Amino acid sequence: MSELNLDNIVGFKAIDKDGNEQNVTVDEMVDMVATRMVPALSETSALSEISTLATAAATGNDVYENELPTVTDAANVRVLQSSGDAAQMTMQSLATKLGGLIGVTTPTKDGLMPKNQVCRNIGKNDNSYCCLKFEIKSFGEWVNGFLYVADTNGVTSTIAVSATIWNTTRVYCKLINGGNEYIQSISYKKEAGSMLIFIKISQYANIIFAPMTKQYSSSLEAVASIPSDAINIDF
Prior knowledge:
Helix content: 10-25%
Strand order of the largest sheet: 5-12-7-8-9
């Protein structure tokens, strides 16, 4: 059988209640179908409203769902199971489910928090240097955060870091907790599209940078040397 070409259809054959054959145009057929579908759809809508009202009544709220109040401390939410049946889910279960779908944040992937706010961590080997890199390049861009340095002698330092590009490039580091006897120097260098902060430590240390801003990305890595034109910071 050849495929039916609907573009060539100009009418239909119909049988009336007396058994007589009638010719029906495409437009007439469309009108008849539309006329019979509207009441059917209205009936379906009414059944849906009855079902919604019945469900609301079963939960103790004899109102339509769109008339229910908005709350911020709900204990449960209404969900639809894969079977199509309605059910209740606790807010704790919902949070766990959504958290699993969103995933854990990494320095390269957003999750429950922006990736740019994830802590950067590195273990600095002996006789190497550490470079903290900020991806800032335009006037008015800035990065703030906290640098944590813990050495093998138990000395832990907390250093507030701020880097700004404006009329003049500014980088500030301020020791706010701990000691700095093993941090030999902190210096910086502006490059195209980024700000580099170099940290020189006399022994092995664990270093963490906790960024406070989410607009700009940062990274922390070991480097073999510090550029000779890096500018020292008094911290």
